[in-house]
Design brief:
The protein is α+β, with helices and mostly antiparallel strands. Helix content is 42%, strand content 21%. Strand 1 and strand 2 form a beta hairpin. Helix 1 packs across helix 5 and helix 4 packs across helix 5. The longest helix has 20 residues.
Length: 134
């Protein structure tokens, strides 16, 4: 998909760039993931992804999310129990499994990986999620 942007800065300038099919798929996944986040995650991790201090870990600017991709997927898929350290704070709580399908887990991971100061253009796929075992 080619996108054209017109800017008027004293003269007409045309900028064009191409959005690759992969980028398009990621954006679609992020959009679906936002809806899933709103339905399943927002009550604990909050609308801004900052969580609740010492109770529910933040997803915003999360070093854990960035450095523990498979463990993050596993936590959503099977639930999370026990100690984890996020941004220097230890959390020792319980997150029940959400009952999401592999494609829904991929979508919500893509949403949280690309919001609130997180950036990860390597798309999580349903195949990657399916490969994560308990």
């Amino acid at each position: 998909m080619k996108v054209f942007i017109f800017l008027c800065l004293g003269s007409l300038t045309v900028l064009s760039f191409t959005i690759t099919p992969q980028q398009d798929k990621l954006q679609e996944s992020i959009s679906k993931g936002q809806d899933i986040y709103t339905d399943f995650c927002i009550n604990c991790h909050m609308a801004n992804g900052e969580g609740v201090e010492k109770t529910f870990p933040p997803l915003a600017k999360s070093d854990y999310l960035k450095n523990n991709r498979e463990a993050s997927i596993r936590g959503i898929k099977y639930g999370q129990k026990g100690e984890i350290t996020v941004n220097g704070t230890v959390y020792n709580g319980y997150m029940a499994p959400m009952g999401l399908d592999d494609d829904e887990i991929a979508d919500v991971m893509n949403f949280i990986n690309n919001n609130w100061g997180n950036s990860n253009t390597k798309m999580v796929t349903k195949e990657e999620v399916a490969a994560v075992k308990k």
